[in-house]
Amino acid sequence: MSIPERRILLKNADQPGYSNHIDSYLGVGGYEMLRKAVGMTPEAIREEVKTSGVRGRGGAGFPAGMKWGFLDFKSGKPIYLICNADESEPGTFKDRQLIHKDPHQLVEGMMIAAFAIRAKLAFIYIRGEMFDGAKILERAIEEARAKNLLGENILGSGYSCDLIVHRGAGAYICGEETGLIESIEGKRPYPRIKPPYFPAVLGLYQSPTIVNNVETLCNVPHILRMGGAEYAKIGTPGNTGTRIWSVSGQVQRPGYYEFPCGGLTLGQMIFDVCGGLGPGRKLKAVIPGGSSSKVLRAGERFSGKLKDGSAFDWGLEDIPLDFDGPASAGSMSGSGAIIVIDDTVDIVEALANLNAFYAHESCGQCTPCREGSLWMKKITTRMCHGEAREQDVDLLQSISLQISGRTICAHGEACAWPTESFTKKFRDEFIAKARNQNKHADTNAKVSYSLI
Amino acid sequence: MNLKPQTLEKIEKLIPRYPTKRSASLPICHLVQEDQGYISQEAMEWIAAKLGLEPINIYEIVTFYPMLREKPIGRRHIKVCRTLSCALNGSYEVKKLLEKALIGEGHGSSNADYTIEFVECIASCGTAPVVQVDEVLHEGIKPDRVCKFADQIRQETEQMKTSVSKL
Ligand SMILES: Cc1cc2nc3c(=O)[nH]c(=O)nc-3n(C[C@H](O)[C@H](O)[C@H](O)COP(=O)(O)O)c2cc1C
Ligand code: SF4
Ligand code: FES
């Protein structure tokens, strides 16, 4: 491996002898930052987080310090902190590592964050399928409680905050923060419309609430340790800290890799870190930031101006892995999940597979998302089952363009972007599929499909 | 409702932890399902009464969440991830082979011992294809490993059955 990782969040994970029990964490200086935090003012901690520039690792990349700044401290209502551990964007498996391998780092990060925003109560919303993860966290919380690191009068500071592990039950939409909030309230997880329901103002129980991703909160102890300004030196301006990238699909060494933001390019990740593609295979496409991010086609060129005004002209391999790189290439870094697709894959099948996911996961409140996701699934599935038509590609494109911007939550965009980008960038393959099937229509040849 | 004493105890402990009783509805559904294997109509009414809610409030969540069910399933619940990274590594084939090995070709995907289902991405895409059996995640179950894997599940299941019949 030519480019070494820089492990900050995953420093202890996978180390021989390191376990997810509290003794291991205390042995490497764990909870020292919580001790430091309760001696600081909440404002000073929030300031450090703001200075660090750390951006949310859940998908949208919103600066955490700024989000905390939107909290309504004067409402007189209790404030809540929620850790989003729903991890259900296809391709993403980094939060699983952080929870399983170093749960106390998350607990410490959460208690510092809770203290900094004066939360009355904190939750970890963990996806229902992670049975072990929930048990590990429950145990970590009890271990921390026994050492007075959470619960009543934390470390004698006079500040009290409990932490509840709340399990989901298999619905992707619970990862959307307002759906998550409804879920904790015990209702169907129907996302709420923003405005007015910005969680920082009207969140859980209509009270000010901060929702942050697992990885975001795991950064908090490190920000305090280094100081916000020092932390901000890792990565590139506006893209600070490290990120844990989840790489899956058709590479030789799939896995989770932590690098400073902008520390390598997409090409280096795929070909150096992950060992490239299978023998004899060529790169066909990359989905760079979780399954909803727009697909990139091998051989495409991306050009334009970066935020700082400088011009860029990249091939797929040149895209820097930070927040802004994939966004400049017209996609996004989303949850940091890179799905690699090689030249053996039928691209229509790949899209049909994703469309089946989004049709299954739409909560059904908004007509464009509920119906649109289902139509896109039905059309792409039909195409794979031997009944592709040449005009399908335009029909799909047209449906996809009528969803985004017209729904309550960003699942509308999430379900539309794959179809929008696949049909635009692989138009030739959609048409070829139809033509090919037509040619063989009378031969009764068996249609082969394996992804749907 | 014949819930085990441990389940009842867990439920009683859980409710006061939340700012509102209603927040306990999803965790209680999980506990009831673990206890009974599914959530019956009677159970939904019982949970609702326990939390001062209407039965519809529980029914609407049981019918929404994929993990909650109103009917019993096979002794072992086998969930094969269907989503892209697993599919690219053969999960459709894996599901077919598992059905063939555990249930028999042409006999569907469920019997008294096994319920085999597709689920969506379970956040372990780097070790695709993955199969979750009850609460345990099994990684890297490529089509060529299914035969051995199915044998292992069958053995476990037979052991579970004999230990139950001894009770
Ligand atoms: C459909 C949908 C699914 C989402 N799923 C997740 C998820 O599984 N985990 C997560 O952290 N954020 C998810 N998000 C983003 C959250 O809404 C929210 O922005 C995030 O938890 C905020 O945390 P951060 O600022 O620390 O990233 C999802 C958003 C949408 C629209
Ligand atoms: S966009 Fe889709 S998932 Fe989001 S609220 Fe509307 S129907 Fe539900
Ligand atoms: S796609 Fe199967 S675990 Fe993510």
Task: List its salient traits.
A: alpha/beta, Rossmann fold, Ubiquitin-like (UB roll), de novo design (two linked rop proteins), five-stranded mixed β-sheet, four-stranded parallel β-sheet, B: 167 residues, alpha+beta, Arc Repressor Mutant, subunit A, 2 domains, four-stranded mixed β-sheet, 11% strand, binds flavin mononucleotide, binds iron/sulfur cluster, binds FE2/S2 (inorganic) cluster
Description of the structure:
The complex is a heterodimer of chains A (452) and B (167). Chain A is an alpha/beta fold. Chain A folds into three domains: 22-231, NADH-ubiquinone oxidoreductase 51kDa subunit (Rossmann fold), CATH 3.40.50.11540; 239-342, Ubiquitin-like (UB roll) (Roll), CATH 3.10.20.600; 347-439, de novo design (two linked rop proteins), CATH 1.20.1440. Chain A contains 19 helices and 13 strands. Chain A has helices spanning 22-27, 32-37, 42-52, 64-69, 94-101, 103-117, 131-146, 177-184, 199-202, 214-218, 220-226, 228-231, 266-273, 324-328, 347-361, 367-387, 392-401, 411-425, 427-439; strands at residues 80-85, 121-126, 162-167, 209-213, 235-236, 239-240, 242-249, 255-260, 283-287, 296-297, 301-305, 311-315, 337-342. In chain A, the strands form four sheets. Chain A has a five-stranded mixed beta sheet with strand order 8-7-13-9-10, with no helix packed on it. A four-stranded parallel beta sheet of chain A has the order 3-2-1-4, with helices on both faces. In chain A, strands 5-6 form a two-stranded antiparallel sheet. In chain A, helix 17 packs antiparallel against helix 18 (411-425). The longest helix of chain A has 21 residues, at 367-387. Chain A is globular and about 80 Å long. The mean pLDDT of chain A is 96. Chain B is α+β, with helices and mostly antiparallel strands and 167 residues long. Chain B has two domains: 5-64, Arc Repressor Mutant, subunit A, CATH 1.10.10; 76-165, 3-Layer(aba) Sandwich (Glutaredoxin), CATH 3.40.30. Chain B has seven helices and four strands. Chain B has helices spanning 5-14, 25-36, 41-51, 55-62, 84-88, 91-102, 146-166; strands spanning 76-81, 114-119, 131-133, 136-138. In chain B, strands 2-1-3-4 form a four-stranded mixed beta sheet, covered by helices on one side. In chain B, a hairpin with a 2-residue loop joins strand 3 (131-133) and strand 4. In chain B, helix 3 crosses helix 4 (55-62). Chain B starts with a helix and ends with a helix. The mean pLDDT of chain B is 96. At the A-B interface, strand 3, strand 7, strand 13 and helix 15 of A face helix 2, helix 4 and helix 5 of B. FE2/S2 (inorganic) cluster is lined by residues 81, 83-86, 121-125, 128, 130 of chain B. Iron/sulfur cluster (SF4) binds next to helix 16 and helix 18 of chain A.
